[in-house]
């Protein structure tokens, strides 16, 4: 009975505390009490307002003292059971939060330690409180709806376990969102892949077109590339797949260049080749209209050789006089060769005369620049033969009579009046000296330039049985073997007539005559001419 009265007082104390809680509008605490006895005491401890906390603590302290006394008597009846550790913890709070936790434990103690007789009465009291709490909760919910309290206040009133549940729910919601996002990305990737496969034929078609013309040499399989720098040109020349190189930039190339690839200097580009002693040989080169190809031997000992085949629709320039430029390339087109120097040697027949507008250049007649030219006379010469000098290392097709000056000499005086192919009328020694006329030159790559070539031979004497002499119209350089080749004097005819030969006069003769052979002298048939030789 003593335990019951104490339990009764405990219930009254709880009722007064509940009344104060209702005044402070904290209904949720009482709602939590009806779930379990242990939990319904924990929740109000955490959710009571700061104003009611001191009053509740004081009431709980008085309850604790009464409960302690009840426990002592109960402990005596139950063979002195041990006092709960929570009593000690509740008596020594350190902070406000510790006090709250202590209050929870303190309330647990009387619940656990009350006698079995008092438990039914307490439960009935709690049930009455639950009904009051439900009514209070309904009115509180109505007030909350009107005041629209922030969600953060509700969150602060919920146990930490509920916050953890919310976080878990949030994560659970996020996870499917991410999953959907990944699926969507996969779908997009699949659609993109399908579109890529659909457009692949078009892309390949375009790539085939672009494959034939590519800036630089990034595409190694391109058959046609465009270059704007020396390094790009060098790489394109090394690439076996490249067949056409378009020069589109203005730059200087300083290395030897020999290739069978097609080189195109595009309109607007200025391509300068500047070397010391090297060769530029291209089998197929195009200089577009508006493009410029410059050759610049940069040192006084330089020799730059340009060979191959060029179609010139633009302009060719030799810009340096320090070194020699040997231009041997065959050029066609409607362009110009506007700039030359005194050391520019253009091979004979390679550039049309109408294309060359520069001045000071020379026409080189040598076929092989590294070989010296020669001239010679036929090995067998006889009076009456028409001979032509034999040249070596002269470009085929050169008009010898136009290019060279000829000087013939019999060892005593000049003969044949500079003929390129004379008929031999004198026997004995025959000497020939040839020299190129301006602007022609015989220039080797070793800077050798022979001014003249010499040849010497022997002409064998040839005599005729009949010699024609025309003192008025004849020429002693003739053989006299016909009327058309009549000689002037009988003395000269003696050299060409055989023993017991005949001299035919084509007109009156009144000149000196040295006759040292047995000959017959007569007038042309049908004519009578005066033969009156003099002593002079």
Describe the structure.
The chain is 37% helix and 24% strand. The protein contains twelve helices and 26 strands. Helix 1 (2-23) packs parallel to helix 7 (119-147), helix 3 runs antiparallel to helix 6 (96-113) and helix 5 runs antiparallel to helix 6. The strands form five sheets. Strands 1, 2, 3, 5, 7, 9, 11, 12, 14, 15 and 22 form an eleven-stranded parallel beta sheet that branches. The chain is α/β, with parallel strands linked by helices. The protein has helices spanning 2-23, 27-33, 37-47, 53-77, 85-91, 96-113, 119-147, 151-157, 160-211, 230-238, 400-403, 490-496, and strands at residues 214-215, 224-227, 244-247, 251-253, 257-265, 270-275, 277-287, 292-297, 303-312, 315-318, 324-327, 330-332, 336-339, 344-347, 362-364, 374-376, 381-382, 390-392, 404-409, 414-415, 428-436, 440-441, 453-460, 464-469, 497-505, 520-523. Mean pLDDT is 75; it is low at 1-14, 25-54, 80-120, 148-180 and 208-215. It is rod-shaped, with a radius of gyration of 65 Å. InterPro entries: Pectin_lyase_fold/virulence. Residues 1-211 are annotated as: Disordered. Residues 9-86, 96-152, 162-207 have a biased composition (Basic and acidic residues).
Describe, in short, the structure shown.
The chain has twelve helices and 26 strands.
Shape: rod-shaped
Task: State the end-to-end CA separation.
Answer: 198 Å
* Portion in helices: 25-40%
Uncertain spans: 1-14, 25-54, 80-120, 148-180, 208-215
InterPro entries: Pectin_lyase_fold/virulence
Region (Disordered): 1-211
Biased composition (Basic and acidic residues): 9-86, 96-152, 162-207
């Amino acid at each position: 009975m003593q335990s019951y009265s104490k339990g009764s007082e405990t219930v009254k104390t709880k009722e007064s505390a509940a009344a104060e809680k209702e005044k402070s509008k904290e209904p949720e605490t009482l709602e939590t009490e009806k779930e379990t006895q242990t939990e319904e005491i924990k929740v109000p401890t955490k959710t009571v307002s700061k104003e009611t906390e001191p009053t509740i603590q004081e009431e709980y302290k008085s309850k604790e003292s009464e409960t302690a006394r009840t426990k002592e008597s109960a402990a005596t009846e139950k063979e002195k059971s041990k006092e709960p550790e929570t009593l000690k913890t509740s008596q020594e709070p350190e902070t406000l939060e510790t006090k709250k936790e202590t209050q929870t434990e303190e309330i647990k103690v009387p619940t656990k330690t009350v006698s079995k007789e008092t438990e039914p009465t307490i439960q009935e009291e709690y049930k009455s409180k639950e009904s009051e709490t439900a009514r209070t909760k309904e009115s509180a919910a109505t007030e909350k709806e009107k005041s629209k309290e922030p969600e953060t206040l509700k969150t602060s009133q919920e146990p930490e376990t509920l916050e953890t549940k919310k976080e878990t729910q949030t994560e659970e919601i996020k996870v499917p969102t991410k999953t959907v996002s990944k699926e969507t990305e996969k779908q997009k990737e699949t659609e993109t892949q399908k579109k890529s496969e659909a457009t692949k034929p078009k892309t390949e078609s375009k790539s085939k077109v672009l494959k034939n013309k590519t800036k630089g040499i990034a595409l190694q399989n391109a058959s046609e590339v465009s270059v704007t720098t020396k390094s790009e040109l060098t790489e394109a020349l090394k690439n076996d797949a490249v067949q056409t190189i378009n020069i589109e930039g203005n730059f200087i190339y300083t290395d030897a260049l020999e290739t069978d690839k097609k080189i195109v200097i595009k309109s607007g580009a200025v391509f300068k080749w500047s070397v010391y002693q090297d060769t530029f040989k291209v089998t197929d080169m195009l200089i577009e209209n508006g493009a410029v190809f410059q050759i610049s031997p940069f040192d006084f000992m330089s020799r730059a050789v340009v060979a191959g085949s060029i179609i010139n629709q633009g302009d060719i320039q030799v810009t340096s006089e320090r070194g020699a430029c040997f231009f041997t390339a065959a050029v066609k087109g409607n362009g110009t060769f506007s700039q030359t120097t005194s050391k520019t040697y253009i091979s004979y027949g390679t550039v049309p005369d109408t294309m060359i507008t520069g001045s000071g250049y020379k026409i080189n007649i040598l076929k092989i620049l590294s070989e010296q030219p020669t001239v010679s006379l036929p090995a067998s010469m006889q009076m009456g033969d028409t001979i032509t000098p034999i040249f070596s290392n002269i470009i085929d097709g050169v008009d010898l009579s136009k290019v060279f000056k000829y000087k013939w000499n019999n060892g005593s005086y000049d003969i044949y009046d500079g003929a390129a192919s004379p008929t031999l009328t004198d026997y004995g020694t025959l000497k020939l000296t040839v020299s190129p006329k301006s602007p022609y030159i015989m220039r080797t790559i070793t800077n050798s330039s022979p001014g003249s070539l010499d040849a010497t031979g022997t002409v064998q004497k040839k005599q005729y049985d009949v010699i024609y002499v025309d003192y008025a119209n004849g020429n002693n350089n003739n053989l006299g073997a016909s009327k058309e080749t009549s000689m002037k004097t009988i003395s000269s005819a003696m050299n060409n007539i055989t023993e017991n030969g005949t001299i035919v006069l084509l007109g009156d003769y009144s000149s000196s005559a040295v006759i040292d052979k047995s000959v017959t002298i007569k007038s042309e048939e049908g004519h009578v001419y005066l033969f009156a030789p003099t002593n002079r």
